[in-house]
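User:
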Amino acid sequence: MRLPEADPAASPELERAFAEFRRTRGIVSNVMRAFAHAPAGLAALAELGRYCRYDTALSELEKELVILITGRGVDYAWLHHAPLGLKAGLTEAQLGAIRAGAVPEGLGPAHRALAEYVFAFATLRGVPESVFAALQAHYTPRQITDVNLIAGYYLGIAATVIALQVQPDPPEAVAEGAAFHARGQR
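Assistant: Predicted structure:
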């Protein structure tokens, strides 16, 4: 990583932020450590991330579609979320399509509309009216807002991973984070 490691022992505020992150995710991932020089910012980011993972009005499959599409070009995101996408019901072929930048085959109309919307959202060039109308035909205003919150959060995380050259977490940390999520803890 491009920044030096922050020492939680030197900052009670950082230790509290790390403790809260461990409580809600089981681990403090390398990407969250990248924000450690701004403990209050890390705490705010962790709270938004907790909301995105546990409190939205979207299903696990819908959340993972949003996350995988926004993070498809970032190995760090893929390492963490491709296994969760499989657990949520995506197939290897669907993951391959997402990774290649395509809406996967075999999605129902609502999930197809969601995928098309997130692909458009992630370009940062606007969402065509027809794509938004298709999403709106299947999702409530609350759900659409949640889609935007998740996509925005993960676009920011992906940009940080790239800019700060955040290294992948060790496999055991990825597995512990996935197991923690699977237990539904928060």
